[in-house]
Amino acid sequence: MQWNDGKQRCSWANPNNEKYIEYHDHEWGIPVYDDHKLFEMLILEGFQAGLSWECVLNKREAFREAFDQFEVEKVREYNEEKMLELKDNPGIIRNMRKIQAAVTNAQVFCGIQEEYHSFSEYLWHWTDGKVIYEKGVASSPLSDRISKDLKKRGMKFVGTTIIYSYLQAVGVIYSHEEGCYLEHR
Fold first, then answer.
1. Does residue 28 have an active-site annotation?
2. 110 assigned binding-site residue
3. 176: annotated binding-site residue?
4. Beta strands 132-133 and 173-174, pairing class
5. Is 53 among the residues known to form the active site?
6. Global pTM exceeds 0.90
7. Which one of the listed residues 20, 45, 78, 122 is annotated catalytic?
8. Domains in the chain: boundaries
9. Cα–Cα distances in Å, from 112 out to 48, 108, 121, 155?
10. What is the tens place of the pLDDT at every residue in 25-73?
11. Are 101 and 156 in contact (CB under 8 A)?
12. Is 12 in the active site?
């Protein structure tokens, strides 16, 4: 694939989408410890189910506006009226099951924060704070375990493939492809 700046990137990054290039180069795979960012990415990954990440990324700003900048304390309190308002928002993915899951997941997220003092502590405890380097798979025993635990706690749209993608996005798993200029960061 030919890139305008001459840098080789992962094959999934669209060279014609500046948002995607920016995401690939400056966000994907970088370890995240901030609960606000971890919540945003968890919700966006849930909305991505069955769609492309590029579709979600292109709507990210509309999602931020619609979901109160992903303030978990606000999202956890959304009522039926607010969820119907979201379902009518043409700027986001208007799937009611995913909207309801976002609210449920916010409630569970807050419960995990209370239990572990932060969602970051919960997430990173699975790897003892270490980044896992692997590529070429869509799920792993790690994503299986986290997915199972989140489902047991009541979260929705957190299957092992979604969780694996989430772990890659927030840098728990580092997966830049062979030949990508970020492969050995």
1. no
2. no
3. yes
4. parallel
5. yes
6. yes
7. 45
8. 18-174
9. 23, 6, 9, 11
10. 999 999 999 999 999 999 999 999 999 999 999 999 999 999 999 999 9
11. yes
12. no
